[in-house]
Amino acid sequence: MAQKKVALACSVCGSRNYTIPANSNRTKRLELNKFCKYCGKYTLHKETR
After folding, report:
1. Domain span holding position 40
2. What residue ranges in 1-49 does DSSP mark as E strands?
3. What is the pLDDT of residue 2?
4. Count of structural domains within the chain
5. Which class for 45: exposed (0-12), middle (13-18), buried (19 or more C-beta within 10 A)?
6. Distance between CA 23 and CA 40 in Å, rounded?
7. For 6-31, how does the pLDDT look when each residue is reduced to its tens digit (9 = 90+)?
8. Burial of 2 per CB tally in 10 Å (0-12, 13-18, 19+)
9. Rounded to whole angstroms, what are the CA distances from 17 to 1, 26, 43?
10. InterPro entries of this UniProt entry (predicted)?
């Protein structure tokens, strides 16, 4: 059985650059500062479902 995945979307441009495994223990949506190749800088990326 394959793992379910969720995407991390850039809060500036909205592009979904990263995917991570879904975790049922996580109650809040994950927010990380990651590099966005479309914006060319580190921006806040939020978990999408």
Report:
1. 5-47
2. 5-10, 16-21, 31-36, 41-47
3. 87
4. 1
5. buried
6. 29
7. 999 999 999 999 999 998 898 899 99
8. exposed
9. 24, 20, 11
10. Ribosomal_bL33 (IPR001705), Ribosomal_bL33_sf (IPR038584), Ribosomal_zn-bd (IPR011332)
Q: Alpha-carbon distance 48 to 30, whole Å?
A: 9
Amino acid found at 21: P
49 has a pLDDT exceeding 90: no
Q: What confidence category does residue 36 fall into, taking pLDDT thresholds of 50, 70 and 90?
A: very high
CB 46 within 8 A of CB 31: yes
Residues composing the chain: 49
